Amino acid sequence: MMRPARALLPLLLVPVLLTGCGAGKSSGTAADSADLDAAAGDWGVAPELVYVTKVSGYTVLRESVGEYNNEFAAAYGSEKGVGKFGLFVGRGTMTAESCPEQPLGEVSEKRVTCEHAGDAWYRKAGGSHEYAVPDDGVVIHLIADVDKVDRAVLRKAAEAAHRPDDAELAALLPTGNGAGT
Question: What residues pair up with 124 in beta bridges, in sequence order?
Answer without folding.
Answer: 113, 129
